[in-house]
């Protein structure tokens, strides 16, 4: 039997049994989660079956397998309790570090995206992730899909929208498995603004995402692009504080309907272009005054701003009318993560603008940064002479707690 035939049988079985509504409060089980995912997508006008059947099947089976583990864990816990272990779950010995910049790489996604920023996409499992956290003393982490997010099929809206939904269901499942330790930033299918609004709502309100991850550019459009304004407007209007995590992407230029990688050097874009990408998109968000106008939105900025701090005066001195107001936003609604080798020297450039140290967060970039970078980065924060012990504790934990508040897992 051909895969497609097997697949359509598989699909029709699931489609015929749609009846449930899947919400964060629901106990979704491995046996019914697939139905719920498909019917919720349908309700939002998303055709998950637009995706390649092989990908769709791998994704559904990985998601079901994770929910299977959620059930097993719950059963084990019940048994422990009924056996008289009334002490609750034993708390392993770890510190309170919160990692705000870290990634999930479902195997089915790695197959679609074998390279990231010109480097091989790392191999990852949720179990390895938790082991890494335990070894590094990290208690809680906010995970996200890295670049290119759902932007894997340039120009193909249906596929991009379906992929975004699958990625969010997948990452939400990992968070369910380690509730209390993992939260996530949801991907959105920009540049398709209306679909991105619908996905952000679903992920935040139904799946419990702590915020959204936006790429520096989506199919060549930087975040201040006029067509994205309704997205920021809608997010801003969701009520309460909303969090946007900005992640660098490979730069592209559009030529007709073709996207052309715009790396002018021979080096992989992840190695250095990502820093310029962060600067470009923050410049765009600032000069369009997107960050000024939508005041409920807070931004998590990777790599203490990449190349942006070096460019701030250059950019803003030419627009004196928004100089002070922009620095004010960088000091209150921008939160700068430490991912990468940023605390040897680079962070001093950001602090030179008077950004309060209470806006600094800790991030590892696991598993994309090589292990020596992750451990070295943590050591560099600990060894830095720019911060007092109390300020370091705040970088590792309190500042993130202030940003996320009740959204913290
Ligand atoms: C899945 O089934 C369980 C019972 O087996 C039920 O409690 C739960 O509400 C269902 N969840 C969904 C999303 O249908
Ligand atoms: C923000 O508001 C200013 C007017 O105060 C306006 O000039 C600008 O176009 C607005 N930008 C966005 C992205 O809403």
Automatic annotation (TrEMBL):
One of its GO terms (biological process) is secondary metabolic process. Coiled coil: none annotated. Residues 1-23 form the signal peptide. GO terms for molecular function: carboxy-lyase activity; hydrolase activity. GO terms for cellular component: cytosol. Keywords: Decarboxylase, Lyase, Signal. Residues 98-405 form the Amidohydrolase-related domain. It comes from the Eukaryota. Belongs to the metallo-dependent hydrolases superfamily. This is Amidohydrolase-related domain-containing protein. It comes from Candolleomyces aberdarensis. The lineage of its organism: Eukaryota, Fungi, Dikarya, Basidiomycota, Agaricomycotina.
């Amino acid at each position: 039997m051909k895969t497609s035939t097997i697949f359509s049988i598989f699909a029709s079985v699931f489609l015929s049994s749609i009846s449930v509504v899947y919400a964060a409060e629901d106990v979704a089980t491995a046996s019914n989660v697939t139905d719920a995912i498909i019917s919720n997508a349908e309700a939002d006008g998303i055709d998950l079956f637009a995706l390649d059947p092989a990908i769709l099947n791998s994704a559904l089976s990985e998601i079901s397998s994770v929910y299977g583990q959620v059930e097993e864990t719950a059963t084990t816990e019940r048994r422990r309790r009924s056996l008289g272990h009334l002490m609750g779950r034993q708390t392993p010995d770890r510190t309170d570090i919160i990692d705000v910049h870290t990634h999930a790489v479902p195997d089915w996604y790695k197959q679609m995206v074998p390279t990231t920023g010109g480097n091989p996409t790392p191999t990852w499992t949720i179990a390895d992730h938790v082991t890494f956290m335990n070894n590094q003393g990290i208690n809680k982490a906010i995970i996200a899909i890295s670049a290119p997010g759902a932007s894997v099929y340039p120009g193909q809206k249906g596929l991009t929208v379906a992929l975004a939904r699958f990625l969010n269901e997948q990452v939400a499942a990992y968070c369910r498995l380690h509730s209390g330790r993992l939260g996530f930033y949801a991907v959105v299918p920009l540049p398709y603004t209306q679909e991105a609004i619908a996905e952000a709502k679903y992920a935040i309100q139904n799946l419990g995402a702590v915020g959204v991850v936006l790429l520096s550019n989506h199919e060549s459009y930087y975040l201040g692009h006029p067509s994205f304004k309704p997205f920021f407007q809608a997010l801003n209007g969701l009520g309460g504080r909303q969090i946007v995590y900005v992640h660098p992407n490979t730069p592209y230029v559009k030529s007709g309907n073709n996207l052309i990688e715009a790396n002018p050097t021979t080096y992989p874009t992840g190695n250095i272009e990502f820093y310029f990408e962060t600067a470009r998109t923050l410049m765009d968000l600032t000069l369009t005054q997107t960050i000024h106008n939508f005041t409920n939105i807070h931004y998590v900025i990777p790599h203490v701003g990449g190349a942006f701090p070096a460019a701030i005066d250059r950019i803003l001195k030419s627009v004196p009318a928004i100089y002070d107001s922009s620095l004010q936003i960088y000091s209150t609604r921008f939160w700068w993560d430490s991912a990468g080798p940023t605390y040897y020297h680079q962070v001093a450039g950001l602090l030179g603008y008077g950004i309060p140290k209470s806006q600094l967060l800790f991030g590892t970039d696991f598993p994309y940064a090589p292990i020596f970078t992750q451990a070295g980065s943590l050591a560099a924060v600990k060894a830095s002479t720019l911060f007092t012990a109390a300020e370091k504790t705040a970088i590792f934990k309190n500042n993130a707690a202030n940003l996320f508040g009740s959204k913290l897992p």
